[in-house]
């Protein structure tokens, strides 16, 4: 099997005296050399502000920045480059949409999310509801960690204006049945925003086939830099929405009393954008596109299955969730201990996992647990990493 | 276990395994805080695990009495060490005690990072703040 580990310079190090095993990929992935080089190349050789100047460097920067947008368009199979808005990340993408709907919702309109959502797909809607007197509702998640589709259907009505749902749960790895959710939501007359932060790193996402209205994701979880993310939106909807932030780049003309706004996608990109970030994201997409993604998906699935079956054999380990379809994430608890204890003891062995509520407190409340230990896989992980994790957990259990 | 015993025991250990086993054992011996006191007002902010701290001032002895608890074993062990340093000491002693030097001596910093959400620093800051505002304690 091909190993991609060598493409990621950071992985070649010792942590607490052992070779690093990085299993915190759902929080952020590491960056391949090509992405680091793209950032460095930009700052070394053609750093300039985009879009406005007449000089050569600015031209080159603008070209690279806009080329990155084209890469993103292809990557998610959007129809037009006007549908690709660069943001700071998933969180900002969702906030953008939630803010733009402020003037479009009436009191008693409803926003429907799930109990599985990351806080960044909850709080912006709470704030929107508070501004507009709309009502925020959340469908249940069952003990397996799947969305309760009956609860979803019950809460969906002709009052529902927006459905916001994750593609993949960051806490449990659940892959949600989006096709069905989106169809039902559309039938009810709602628009659908998908939080794709945990999906794009792992499988090919086709926004056109999904027919979602908005799709949000972050660069840093898919081998790109931090501080850059994407909001995909259907062109018709983006045309209809008012701008959110005001400033340079997003205008056509400005007088003291009035401004006219720039066309898409610039209408939603006020101020100097994260040029290096976008170029780095483009490089990450190039990297991913050059790899056999189906093979990698299968390999990540093997690692997940191996981990689940091995964890099940350890006395005192309780797996959290057993969703119908899951990728790349396994959450568990060790009886009689706090996730933090296990995380600390794994760290001592050079194994990086995440512990806590994973920014999904309503999900933890619904599952009746304070948090979990979460291991999440990526294309550079291997069965050796799984072996180290399992040995590490066994050791942690023996301490507790 | 008093502070001298803790220091001496730590002195025997080279490996992280021994240190952690000891810290976890200290945690297991730590008396629990009454459930009734595990309320949001007593939570120390800045800890990944939950840490509750209840303090009172004994004006006769001029001592601050601390009860601290957590839901994580390792943090409970750290609490035992913090209590060995601070509990039943005078406000003045607490305000001037060099806890960083203690952590250095135990080589705790290497192994038990202050920034890793174990909230050791938040706990210490809270105790030091209490020492300078005993009027708020009863
Ligand atoms: C499912 C999900 N949604 C949203 C986010 C927020 O992403 P970001 O912090 O990059 O904006 C995350 C990241 O943790 C996530 O996993």
Descriptive notes:
The complex is a heterodimer of chains A (400) and B (138). In chain A, strand 11 and strand 12 (259-261) form a beta hairpin. Chain A has a seven-stranded mixed sheet, with helices on both faces. Chain A has a four-stranded antiparallel sheet with strand order 13-14-17-16, with helices on one face. In chain A, 50% of the residues are buried. The radius of gyration of chain A is 22 Å and the shape is globular. By secondary structure, chain A is α/β, with parallel strands linked by helices. Chain A has helices spanning 33-46, 56-76, 90-100, 123-132, 149-155, 178-187, 207-210, 235-240, 275-289, 293-312, 339-347, 361-367, 383-399; strands at 14-15, 18-19, 21-22, 84-87, 110-114, 135-139, 160-166, 191-195, 214-218, 229-233, 251-254, 259-261, 317-320, 329-334, 351-352, 354-356, 372-376. Chain B has 138 residues and is mainly alpha-helical. Chain B has a single domain (3-136), classed as Sufe protein. Chain: A (Alpha-Beta Complex), CATH 3.90.1010. Chain B has helices at residues 3-12, 16-29, 73-86, 91-96, 99-105, 108-111, 120-131; strands spanning 51-58, 63-70. Chain A binds chain B through residues 16, 337-338, 340-341, 344-345, 347-348, 355-356, 370, 399-400, and chain B through 16-17, 20-21, 24, 48-50, 70-75, 111-112, 116-118. Pyridoxal-5'-phosphate is lined by residues 26, 89-91, 118, 120-121, 166, 170, 195, 197-198, 218, 359 of chain A.
Overall geometric form of chain A: globular
The molecules bound to the chains, other than polymers, are: pyridoxal-5'-phosphate
Q: Taking Cα atoms only, what radius of gyration of chain B do you get, to the nearest Å? A: 14 Å
Q: How many domains would you count in the coordinates of chain A?
A: 2
